[in-house]
Design brief:
By secondary structure, the protein is of the alpha/beta class. It has helices spanning 20-34, 46-53, 57-70, 119-132, 147-161, 175-189, 203-211, 253-261, 316-325, 332-343, 346-370, 392-404, 442-459; strands at residues 5-6, 9-10, 73-76, 80-83, 105-106, 170-173, 194-198, 215-219, 221-222, 225-226, 236-239, 265-269, 293-298, 310-313, 384-388, 407-408, 410-411, 432-436. The strands form six sheets. Strands 6-14-13-12-11-7-8 form a seven-stranded mixed β-sheet, sandwiched between helices. Strands 15-18-17 form a three-stranded antiparallel β-sheet, with helices on one face. Strand 1 (5-6) and strand 2 form a beta hairpin. Helix 5 packs across helix 10 (332-343). It is globular, with a radius of gyration of 28 Å. The N and C termini lie far apart (61 Å). 44% of the residues are buried. It binds pyridoxal-5'-phosphate. Pyridoxal-5'-phosphate binds at residues 110, 175-177, 202, 240, 245, 269, 271, 298, 300, 305, 310.
Amino acid sequence: MAKTWANGLDLHLDVTGTRVRAKLEASLRAAVRSGRLHPGMRLPSSRTLAADLGVARNTVAEVYSQLVAEGWLTARTGSGTVVAPRSAVPGPDTTAARDPAPPRYDLRPGEPDLSAFPRREWLAAGRKALAAAPDHVLSYPDPRGLHVLRAVLAEYLARARGVAADAGYIVICSGFAHGLAVLCRALRASGAVSVAVEEYGHQLHRDIVAAQGLDPVLLPVSDLGAVAGAVGSADAVLLTPAHQFPLGMTLGPRRRRAFAEWGGIVIEDDYDGEFRYDRQPVGAVQALAPDNVVYAGTASKSLAPAVRIGWLVVPPRLLDAVVAQLDGGPSALDQLTLAEFIASGGYDRQIRRARLAYRRRRDRLVVALDGLGMRMTGIAAGLHAVLDLPSAEAERRVCARAEDHGLALDGLRHYTAAGIGDAGADGARRAGLVIGYGRPPEHAYTTALARLCAVLASSLPVSLP
Ligand SMILES: Cc1ncc(COP(=O)(O)O)c(C=O)c1O
């Protein structure tokens, strides 16, 4: 830091090395923002400050002009350059508005390894797609989304997930959460009153159902997945058939058929269907009953939540109602990029790479917990698995100790619908951990795993059944 004295003023400006102009501009802006240079304070002339800093006078003059244009400084002939009154200070403080740092070691479910996002290929796909796109693509898009994306998705979903898909019935949305809200509004407008939701799942999704004016009714989940016979008089049901979230079982074949033949609308949340490790992927229920099942997919697990692109394959009888509820989807430019990324094979490559990496992680987790005499469930697919614990108290103890070790862990209670009591109270809820092994970057996984084992060994001295 070069201490800079000018006109008796200590400016503390750091303008050494390269990019002198940018540094001077940033230092002055920060000094005004923090109040170190207070409103009305007169700055040295550009000549004096330039001499003091050992930079060209023009550099200082340009910086002053820029900061005057932005409203940080004012300049009047005869009275020099002065720090502007506070009310004129514009713009958000971007340095203060940083996103909060994530926990150091994070084994919560819900996100893939963000460090594995294929940045280079994504950028290349975006560049190529935009260069080739006709101008009209930049206009207001079809509310269902860009045709080019819907067409490549139709082919991809048929091939990879067995979905009976036609581009005309695919609707692009801003992730599953947005798609679910749109669907619920469409169901409500068509006269629906209630939606059955799995008793273990995301509170966010239950809230979305309720926020659209529908009644979320809890559906029991057994070791074969959601209990089809318990759907009652609900108008629709929200399911995670390929890998129940968060318990991890696959919906049993009989129940798949029962839901497909049920007659009400089934919303199939296929959030991590591409990640199955030990046998062939379980195809979509939608293929059994395309007239009754809305298939929902997302790029949040296969790429990253920030992509904010999801897709619905809508039964023909529901399409108009859904389109009527669409309220804007993801940027057409992002849709173009994803379309090119899928068409060029980049999406398949990314999934193959990720599947291999997550399977290795899953295997390491299984071996590590095996060493402690612990067995997980829900390990056949996805990016998370469940470790049952003897009691809700044990779950709380493990999560608290993990926090002390800089490790973020989620207990099953985060995903249990309100109204299901803790095991031990009424014996109804399962206690355990939902371990998201997909989330840490590769270099942090070994330590995250070691901490998990240390926390479990010290919190649960007795071997689990
Ligand atoms: C069960 C489930 N469904 C869907 C999603 C994806 O939601 P979105 O596409 O809104 O990111 C997630 C992501 O965490 C999830 O866990």
